[in-house]
Amino acid sequence: MRSTLRILKGEHLALRGIARVLKMEALVLERGGRVDLDVLKDIVAYVREFPMRFHHPKEERTLFAALSGRSPEADALIVRLTSEHADEGRLVQCLADAVAAYARDGGGNLAGVAKDYARYLEEHIHLEDHQLFAQAEHLLSPAAWDALDATLEQAQQPGQDKAELDRFTRLHLRIMDAALPPFGG
After folding, report:
1. Using CA atoms, how far apart are residues 96 and 87, in angstroms rounded to an integer?
2. Whole-model pTM above 0.70?
3. How many CB atoms within 10 Å of residue 110?
4. Mean pLDDT by 10 residues, the chain (185 residues)
5. Could you give all domains of the chain from N- to C-terminal order, each with its CATH number?
6. Cβ–Cβ < 8 Å for 99, 93
7. Contact yes or no for 116/91 (Cβ under 8 A)
């Protein structure tokens, strides 16, 4: 697998984990239970920044740019995905507002909002993983892939954003550790 796809799919896997936790928390709420407010606040902090500051710009500057103009289908897909990226901030704000309302008085529609954002993440990632990446594999030359791989591999090297990326890694691990039950004993 090309390193570009490996990197982006790894980030998608992390975001799918967030979606899974949100769905689990929504289910707890729908069954009348209480959820861990710290986990929800951590999720909001993670999705407010990681996709917007690191993941989406990486996709847009590399893969979207490389595919742009190569086919009408790819162009239409890029327009749709870019629009979804732009709209994600509104969805995250709705989630943040629902978490704040829940923190204040246990009210609001946190379950519904959490499920909506989780569904958005899953559908968006599915579209990228199955349609965008397939378009890229079909349309990009080996030389174009080599250039993309070199660009993304260089971006993954330690540099000015390493501390921020490490912070997001720790935050994601804290969310997963707090929200998912341990396996075994």
Report:
1. 15
2. yes
3. 23
4. 93 95 94 93 94 92 96 97 96 97 90 97 98 97 95 68 80 84 60
5. 3-179 (1.20.120.520)
6. no
7. yes
